[in-house]
Amino acid sequence: MTDDTLSVYLSGEIHSDWRMRIEKGARKAGLDIDFSGPVTDHASSDDCGVEILGAEADDFWKDRKGASINAIRTRTMIERADVVVVRFGDKYKQWNAAFDAGYAAALNLPIITLHDADINHPLKEVDAAALATAETPEQVVRILKYVIDGTL
Q: 94-98 long-range contacts, Cβ below 8 Å, gap at least 24?
């Protein structure tokens, strides 16, 4: 691979430390990676639309404003990414993560899914679009290291 910095978008659940583990592991391995991702502060993500564009009486329109502004960030960063990692946790349904995976697939970007084996079945279509499916953040780091320098 070239000496250019790899751009990796980290999509998915926000209730565990998986992003930090990948970023820390990449730093420890000396990998030149620029990580990006969605806004992970729940309140900011939910309220950005009404905070920026004004209040809404109906929660549907509040959510729609926030989702639209978040989509500007998400789509832009996914389009700039070289690789997209999509994490599915078991606590909540991550519809947004599935959408991100579909968007990345439509752009023909390499996808790495990250989830526990017990949700393989409901994610079979998403995993089929991915080039790798990992169960731990450490496996993702090893994949990225192999992609960058071709060593195990």
A: 94/12, 94/13, 96/11, 96/38, 97/11, 97/12, 97/13, 98/126
Non-local (6+) Cβ contacts of 126 within 8 A are: 86, 88, 98, 101, 102, 113
**Residue ranges of the domains in the chain?**
6-38+77-149
pTM, to two decimals: 0.95
pLDDT at 2 over 60: no
Per-residue DSSP letter, 119 = G
CATH-assigned architecture of domain 6-38+77-149: 3-Layer(aba) Sandwich (3.40)
Does residue 94 carry a pLDDT above 60? yes
Q: What are the angstrom distances between the C-alpha of 61 and each of 53, 129, 146?
A: 11, 32, 44
95-100: long-range pairs with CB below 8 Å, 24+: 96/11, 96/38, 97/11, 97/12, 97/13, 98/126, 100/9, 100/11, 100/12, 100/74
